[in-house]
């Protein structure tokens, strides 16, 4: 069965990990006594709004919340149901992981409605698990599974950031500073973008755990608590990556400043050496009458020897003063 522009997929859950695929007619014909229902919709499709407003039995506030472009992670209770907005890294081909994707869910006894704008890998994994009879057994299990799936896929991306931070530290210590600033900027911007959405998701998961809804079993709550703990760890890892990047940037700035100071010091020494020499040559080159040695053939050689002697004395003096 191919996906439709509005109904991406729908399943009648059998409570044992499996489910039966439904089309729009099957969704409309589904009754609570038939078991759990999961409907996955495309946000921008007109058919999604029409079904939510006319057949889903949701009030206008919930419909707008499900279809809104506002995707900040949150969890709000409405009666026996929960409106949950979650974020995950963008693992679609050609996309940047920090360009995170949003998934909004309405979970109530016996039914889950999920809405997305772009494909979500965690949702595709749930679809495959349902079709192989290894999927969620209830709505609480579904919420825990999708939350865990979104968070699980953040791990490799954050681990990669930590590896990049370690590589940058090694590079700056080894003196390989070529294009290091650009890599530092990319690392910090990625970490900031990820933390911007992962940190609120930690708050949303904490709020979810406090909701007193009967369809969340103790097992579901334990699973969600593990997810919340993992998000907390990821936020700490992102903070660590940012701090390491800041340390690398400070070290890079210190090395560049040290190099500039060393170069300026060498230039100052060169200028100090040539200052007396320039004074002598300038004095002898004023091209007016009375310059001594004008008609003597050895004048130029003597002046050259005198200049070399002055330079040698200056260098000896600089070494004695430990300037060089």
Task: Describe the protein.
This protein is 58% helix and 14% strand. With 324 residues, the protein is α+β, with helices and mostly antiparallel strands. It has 2 domains: 7-255, Beta Polymerase, domain 2; 266-320, Methane Monooxygenase Hydroxylase, Chain G, domain 1, CATH 1.20.58. The protein has a 7-stranded mixed sheet with strand order 2-1-3-7-6-5-4, sandwiched between helices.
Number of helices: 9
> First CA to last CA: what distance?
81 Å
CATH fold naming of the largest domain: Beta Polymerase, domain 2
As a percent range, the share of strand residues is: 5-15%
Q: CATH H level of the largest domain: which superfamily?
A: CorA soluble domain-like
Order of helices and strands: EEHEHHEEEEHHHHHH
Biggest sheet record = 7 strands, mixed
User: Rg from C-alpha positions?
Assistant: 35 Å
> What's the overall average pLDDT, rounded?
86
Total tally of structural domains = 2
Low-confidence stretches: none
Count of distinct strands? 7
Q: Supply the CATH architecture of the largest domain.
A: 2-Layer Sandwich
- Percent in helix: 55-70%
CATH class of the largest domain: Alpha Beta
Instruction: Identify the overall geometry.
Output: rod-shaped
Strand order of the largest sheet: 2-1-3-7-6-5-4
Category by helix and strand content:
alpha+beta
List the helices and strands and how they pair.
Layout: E1 7-13, E2 19-21, H1 24-29, E3 36-42, H2 46-54, H3 60-67, E4 74-78, E5 81-88, E6 101-108, E7 111-116, H4 121-131, H5 139-152, H6 154-174, H7 180-210, H8 218-284, H9 299-320
Parallel strand pairs: 3-7
Antiparallel strand pairs: 1-2, 1-3, 4-5, 5-6, 6-7
